[in-house]
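From the methods appendix. Each design record in this collection lists the tokenized structure first, followed by the designed amino acid sequence. Records were kept in a plain field format so they could be parsed without special tools. The example shown here is representative of the layout used throughout.

RECORD:
FOLD TOKENS (560 positions):
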């Protein structure tokens, strides 16, 4: 037997060995005997020394262990041979298929489709309107949502934004060059007769288009640039955000954003029924509403200006002219927060109501939420989306639970909800998102959380007549998402408003137009702001408010 460094001696350490980086020496041993034998030039002349612990040193491998290792090596060699043979066969098969496909595609170039002049003229229709046209010849254009080649027939699910339609291509229709090279997300127009699906079969809408002619409008790329290589189920979140323009084409996102469109219309119908007038306030402003730390600043022709945090102050100026008013507009908050319920830009449904009291305000908000949900659940398409996206959704019932801020502080204490340092939440402190969510999700019903201390609320909120330390304010809390509405009665007294300016260190000069509402005929009034995205996240069961935006904007994301 040679010395320790002889090529016939190989060393294995089960503790510190490495089958990848090891060389088989005592200083750089392998991890397993199998690896030692696999790399040996002549396994029969190799002497394997094994160290099981760092204290016992290297010992020659036992006969049983060597036999087991050799058997494993033999098995691995046979597996490798089979895999190599399989790979060679697959490569040959792929090459043969590629050759056959090339011949097939070349031959397909000579096949030209033509309209059959004996057929009736096709009526161009959108997919949503097809049910009443069964048995007639139609033409539908759209994007190839899914494509399946089965026994010489093509099954194409076409999408046009209004719905989905299964189209069946057979015979020469699926033998052309365009057919053989058709890719997902290509745009096509299909002509044919709409028929009811056979018994026992299913298709969107319960019908399918038996094609007699079709044509490509715009072909999407294949290969490495194919749609399915851009985004798929395993794609990282950042990739999905970068490719949001393609993600929008998915069924779930499409459902969510169509539901969003319906919800916006439902809010408008509610306000219209109440004769609340819609106005369009400016988004570029030179005043703040919710504090200067969350303002987006920009240069406005040499002057400092901001993107609006809220349209509330402008809505208040409209009350004497139009009566009750509302807007659905974008608001902007420069909050350096990446929580699932924060956005830098969001859709804000805001309203201001004249000659009301605090109870009137609470009833109005309650009625609005219930009315919008009722409209959604009464619409077949949107209610189906809600049931699919959020099967456990239960429409809220009036009256919502009324709960004072002081009761919430007491609830947190009684239920042992503490700060990170273990201390209690005290009266006068703002209740952060996390404990608020714990309370809301535990109670598991809508909550009108009322009468917050003045110190934690905005300068314009009216004090409670029974306790001047409190405000006539309300947050609407929903299970699963937390706050979706913030509102209050507004200060109607001029002197009290100036005290609010002073308390917050706000120069009243730029607010002259807002202050004048208390000079030229004041009145008791109140209003609220509802985050459309939070409302949708609650109703549609989405994890994040980003999921209900067309192109979400949040810290670090302003593209595409």
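DESIGN:
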């Amino acid at each position: 037997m040679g010395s320790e460094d002889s090529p016939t001696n190989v060393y294995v350490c089960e503790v510190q060995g490495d089958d990848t980086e090891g060389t088989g020496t005592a200083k750089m041993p392998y991890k397993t005997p199998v690896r030692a034998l696999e790399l040996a030039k002549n396994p029969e002349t190799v002497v394997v020394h094994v160290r099981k612990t760092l204290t016992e040193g290297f010992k020659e491998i036992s006969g049983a262990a060597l036999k087991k290792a050799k058997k494993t090596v033999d098995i691995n060699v046979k597996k490798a041979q089979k895999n190599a043979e399989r790979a060679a066969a697959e490569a040959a098969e792929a090459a043969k298929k590629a050759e056959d496909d090339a011949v097939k595609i070349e031959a397909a170039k000579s096949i030209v489709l033509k309209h059959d002049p004996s057929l009736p003229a096709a009526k161009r229709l959108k997919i949503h309107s097809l049910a009443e046209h069964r048995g007639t010849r139609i033409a539908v254009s759209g994007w190839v949502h899914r494509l399946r080649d089965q026994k010489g027939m093509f099954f194409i699910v076409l999408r046009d934004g209004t719905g989905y339609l299964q189209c069946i291509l057979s015979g020469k229709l699926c033998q052309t060059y365009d057919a053989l090279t058709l890719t997902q997300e290509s745009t096509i127009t299909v002509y044919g007769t709409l028929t009811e699906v056979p018994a026992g079969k299913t298709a969107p809408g319960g019908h399918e288009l038996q094609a007699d002619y079709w044509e490509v409008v715009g072909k999407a790329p294949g290969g490495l640039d194919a749609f399915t290589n851009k985004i798929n189920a395993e794609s990282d979140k950042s990739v999905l955000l970068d490719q949001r323009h393609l993600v929008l084409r998915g069924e779930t996102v499409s459902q969510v954003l169509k539901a969003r469109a319906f919800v916006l219309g439902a809010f408008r119908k509610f306000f219209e029924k109440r004769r609340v007038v819609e106005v369009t306030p400016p988004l570029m402003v030179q005043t703040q509403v919710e504090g200067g730390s969350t303002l987006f600043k920009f240069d406005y022709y040499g002057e400092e200006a901001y993107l609006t945090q809220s349209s509330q102050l402008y809505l208040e100026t409209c009350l004497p002219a139009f009566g009750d008013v509302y807007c659905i507009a974008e608001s902007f908050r420069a909050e350096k927060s990446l929580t699932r319920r924060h956005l830098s830009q969001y859709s804000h449904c805001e309203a201001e109501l004249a000659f009301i009291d605090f109870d009137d305000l609470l009833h109005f908000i309650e009625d609005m939420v219930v009315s919008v949900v009722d409209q959604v659940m009464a619409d077949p398409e949107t209610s189906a989306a809600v049931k699919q996206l959020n099967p456990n959704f239960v429409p809220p019932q009036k009256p919502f639970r009324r709960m004072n801020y002081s009761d919430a502080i007491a609830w947190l204490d009684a239920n042992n909800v503490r700060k990170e340092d273990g201390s209690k939440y005290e009266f006068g402190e703002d209740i952060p998102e996390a404990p608020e969510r714990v309370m809301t999700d535990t109670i598991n019903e809508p909550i009108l959380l009322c009468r917050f201390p003045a110190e934690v609320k905005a300068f314009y909120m009216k004090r409670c007549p029974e306790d001047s330390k409190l405000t006539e304010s309300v947050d609407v809390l929903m299970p699963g998402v937390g706050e979706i509405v913030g509102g209050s009665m507004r200060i109607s007294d001029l002197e009290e408003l100036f005290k609010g300016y002073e308390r917050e260190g706000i120069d009243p000069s730029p607010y002259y137009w807002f202050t004048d509402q208390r000079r030229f005929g004041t009145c008791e009034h109140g209003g609220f702001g509802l985050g459309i995205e939070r409302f949708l996240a609650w109703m549609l069961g989405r994890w994040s408010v980003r999921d209900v935006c067309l192109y979400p904007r949040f810290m670090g994301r302003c593209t595409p």
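APPENDIX NOTE: The mean pLDDT is 93.
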